[in-house]
Amino acid sequence: MEQTTRRVAVFGAGYIGLVTGACLAELGHTVAVRDILPERVELLQAGEVPIYEPGLGDMILRNKERLRFTLDAEDAVRGAEVAYVCVDTPPTASGDADLSRVWAVVDALKEASHLLALVVKSTVPVGTGRRIRAALDAAGLGHVGYASNPEFTAEGRAVSDFMNPDRIVIGTSDTATGDLIKGLHAGVDGPAVAMDIASAEMTKLAANAALATKITLANELATVCEATGADIEQVTAAIGMDHRIGQHFLKAGLGYGGSCFPKDSRALHALASNSGYSFQLLRTVIEVNGLQARRHLQRLKDELGGFEGRTVALLGMTFKAGTDDMREAPSTIIAARLLAEGAAVRCWDPMAQPGPGQPWDSTTRHASPLEAMAGADAAVIVTEWPELRDAPWAEVRAAMRTALLLDGRNLLDGAAMAQLGFTYMSVGRPTVRP
User: Which fold has domain 196-434?
Assistant: First the structure.
């Protein structure tokens, strides 16, 4: 790709916007990132990063001469050649994506006749680009190119995924805009894939649906393994060696969470339903994932003989390790169900930042796994934090009231835990007792 530095405005300073802005600055572009939250912008202007993402803080600091943050949309877009839309598109009550933030950005750009292109990275329903193109044309911005450039980054490795992607999807209706967006990525180690706008929008939803389906397959197989005495870890390791299947996302656990899989699966299902088609496979994926944490919590309840008056420790609160993101985390369902059934809930997580309100207002937070499990009747590994592998499990055994552990991520060795005196339950593997 030919290296041409550009002036870029990025709208949204969340996970996607911050990574996009920082990485574009790393590639040599001059970037202004705009957000509507004063406290977030103030932190960024002070050199602090409001989210946890490995490598992001160092990249922002390294490129501070080319990267700035603002609350003012006009300030962000002043002199910019390309504007990126990286705002949230949360689900509505119907499951459709709420595009109000996207349209707010489009409206804010209607006077920016100097722009060469508007690029949407936010996850939007198929057909959104067509509507935005019409709005730009109606505003006299027919000369401003439009592109759908969906992100495929995973939290915890988003910087690496941006700089070394499997592919860069660029959906446009004209080759000049496509070449412009491709040029912005000069220096990125990954192939650019050109397609039409609707196909690019669909690719994002389809990719997350495929990954969510693969996780759900592993969880359904785990349930059968529990009923038959098979070991899901051995099964998935073997079938994952088949190059047609692969190991990635073939991991049984308490279900997927985060900002993408739940939202995008529901959005694609809603899109299909609105078109008059019942996407039965995806409907099942959503249903199975919603029940996954509850089903294993019921197993724990049966083992304890009920939760009333019991104390349960939750080890991990974020939806996965390597992030501070609590969105759609299985821990929220687990904590709420435990509290509803009369249990006291103690929590540990090295990065989680739960907001105010239930269920977290009714739980206690502890500084270490050992502290969280002291005096507990049971513990649940909810997030696969590596610190849990090296926890002082012999001390934990002595500190717990009842040495009962549900490993919801199959992180530990059952036989070794049983030797320490634990009743060890996991997902898709036989329960091991002392």
Answer: Rossmann fold (3.40.50)
